[in-house]
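#structure-requests
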Amino acid sequence: MFYHFPFFATQLSFDEIYIDEVFKEKLIRNFSNPKMHHAYILHSNHLDTAIPIAKACSCLLFCQKRISNNPCNECHACKKIKQNIHPDIHFTFPTVSLKSGKAPISDDFIAKWRSFLSSYTYFTPNQWMDEIVEANKQGNITHAECKKISSKLGLKAFEGTYKISIIYQAELMGDGSNRLLKLIEEPPEKTIFFLLVKDINALLPTIISRCQLLKIPLPKNEQLAHILTNYCDVPTESAEKLAWQSKGIISTALKMFSEGQDEIVDIAIKWLRRCYSFDLQSIGKMVDDLNTLGRQKVSQFLTQLIDIFHLSFQHMHQNLHIEHPNFAFIQNFSKILDPEKIDKIQKSINQTAYQVKRNAHLKIALFGLFLEINNQLKLKT
């Protein structure tokens, strides 16, 4: 399930894609150079910015009225790329088996893919799979699809100077990788490859060696907070929390915002304060409230507790100014901790998370955790 931000779905220019400025300049230099390479690997552990980057680069190549280093977004080519229907841009992406038993190719799912891209700019591979299949299945790129790539790129360009192949999760090609390798080694004239890769170790080394590797950096927390504040109408304080909680991953931040997870940090800090003061009445109410929120929210709450103790440990040993919206709390909280306390508390939190996952009684599990944390915090360091 996604939260729909219409502004994001229209992004094509580099000024509107939220990536590191140095990396952005590198892309612009690459694709403004007539002697650019013909095959690129866009590598990211999350891939949520990979598609908009590949589309923006394609726009830079096809745009008929370029403005400085940005596509105009108004010409015939830009409009077609925005609608994901440019005839010289060929998308390949993971698919699942068809009911007919025929080996699936991307064209079998292209209508759903176009609709998906038109609605959502930043997404992860799992979110695309959730769109095309109900069960938790692993998609792949079939050998039949790899043959289809070869046949499409063998044709002349319909409208543009280039033919562009955008392969989302290229590491899932399996046996078809050898066919792609041959294409990259002997590419048809004016052909550009974008291999969007999450697990680069699963890609053939011979393919990696023939491509220019571009590692997509995550935006800094302040950049992501700016996005959320200016384009999603998120209050500044909540945006800062979401940027930190999501660890700079745009799709995660948007998902968390849609689920109201920006409140989890506040709940976790309030819980730890009540644990230290042994405020039974307040903890009883918090346990009731968490129980009402359900197991998924409780799991997120427990993850947040782990993160706070991890950051406290970092601050204790490195005396760093940690990028966290509640740094003052962590700074003071770390004064009553030591490594042994943190280790025991984290083990207790992990045990509670396991109990929650195994459908244990939420109230009993959470109250037991409260007693254990209080016991550790009261011990002399």
